[in-house]
Amino acid sequence: MVALDSPTDAELTRRAQSGDTAALGLLLARHQAPMRAVALSLLGHGPDAEDAVQDAALTALLRIGDVRDPASGGAWLRAVVRNACRMRLRAACETPGLDALAPWLVRSPDPSSHPERLIERHAMRDWIWGAVEELPEQYRLVLMLRHFSGISSYQEIAAACEIPVGTVRSRLHQARARMARTLTATAVQAHVDASTFERESRHEGLATLEAWERGDLPPDISELWPPEAEMTGQLGRPGEHVHPVPVMRRTLEAGVRQHLRHVVAGRDLAIWEMDVTHPGAVHVCPPSLVWLISRRDGRVRKLRVVFPPATALDVLRKAAPAQS
After folding, report:
1. What does pTM read for this prediction?
2. CA–CA distance, 187 with 21 (Å, rounded to integer)
3. How many angstroms separate the Cα of 43 from the Cα of each of 36, 94, 253?
4. Distances (CA, A) of 31 to 73, 78, 84, 278
5. Could you tell me the sign of the dihedral formed by the alpha carbons of 23, 116, 265, 57, in that order?
6. For residues 152 and 100, is the Cβ–Cβ distance under 8 A?
7. φ, ψ for residue 265 (rounded to 5)?
8. How far apart are CA 314 and CA 306, in angstroms?
């Protein structure tokens, strides 16, 4: 029972819709037990039910503005959980690509409805990204890929990170659980403007590609790629240090051009999604690829290039001959 001096669901919902993170945190805490009950009734006891509740809480952050009747905030949260459970039941066979983002999406023909764009427009985006930044890097990367990039199926994430699918599931479960705790604990704190990271990263990406095409890295770009930077994953060489710049320059010399399409970025992790063209290139290239960038002190520590099609790796290897 809600105390007489406690705010009603309607009051909390209105405040949450105006950007009051503490109000949304209180609303979620108040209805946590009935939300869990809905999940258990549909999925039974186990990690899937807990994951569905966590997904529903994150969805509420993005879509609280959808509630038309503020007094029905609790009923709306239970409906979000019910939808998350049904999505899990329908996705028993994992669906690749952006379909995995369905619980987080507000359906719209507008291309700006990409999940990251929804967060950027939402008054609570900084709260969410603050919680993301609190995650260990291995959890943060799989969460960013799953919810904010085109590499979103468990199989694609596993291939991108070179880990088993079971590990992807485990890390996502841990990431969501940690985020739920962090969001509750930081609801009333001030948060850094998360859009700054995206703007700076996009600027760096465009400047880097432009400089590489000119064949001359200016000092401010060169500093981003120190000698200790390393190409990891399938384009790297096990046991050897391969610097990203010579590898990517050779792809340009082979006629391959990359065009920055989408950026997701935090303090020390960035995802650059590229469209690829190859006018005059000898080899046919994949239509897209993704850079996974890990930084330390603002400078690139590791770069892993990911090809969504499984066969695209061999194509780029031919376009970028081995180092002498």
Report:
1. 0.62
2. 5
3. 10, 17, 54
4. 9, 8, 16, 53
5. positive
6. yes
7. -150, 145
8. 12
Task: Give the Cβ contact number of residue 187 at 10 Å.
Answer: 18
Query: Scanning the structure block, which residue is given the tokens 């590898």?
Result: 247
Distances (CA, A) of 158 to 118, 167, 232: 26, 8, 15
Asked whether 43 and 72 are in contact (CB, 8 A), the reply is no
Q: Which amino acid is at 159?
A: A
Residue with tokens 């509630």: 67
Tell me which fold the domain 195-319 belongs to.
Answer: Nuclear Transport Factor 2; Chain: A, (3.10.450)
Residue with tokens 């700006």: 112
- Give the pairing of strands 257-265 and 269-277: antiparallel
Q: Residue type at 220? A: D
Interval 231-252: pLDDT, tens: 988 777 777 888 988 888 888 8
From edge to edge, which strands make up the β-sheet containing 257-265? 230-232, 299-306, 288-296, 269-277, 257-265
The H or E element that residue 175 is part of is helix 165-185
288-296 and 299-306 as β-strands: parallel, antiparallel, unpaired? antiparallel
pLDDT tens track for 91-132: 544 433 333 333 433 333 344 444 444 444 444 567 777 778
Q: How many CA atoms lie within 13 A of 114 on its CB side?
A: 17
Q: Which two tokens stand for residue 232?
A: 């990891």
The domain spans of the chain are: 9-185, 195-319
- At CA 225, angle to CA 310 and CA 149, rounded to 5? 40
Task: Return d(Cα 48, Cα 45) in angstroms, integer.
Answer: 8
List b or e across 281-302, with b for residues whose CB sees 16 or more CB atoms inside 10 angstroms.
beeebbebbbbbbbbeeeebeb
Q: Report how far residue 32's alpha carbon sits from residue 14's, in angstroms, rounded to the nearest whole number.
A: 19
- The values of phi and psi at residue 271, to 5°, are -125, 115
pLDDT at 158: 92
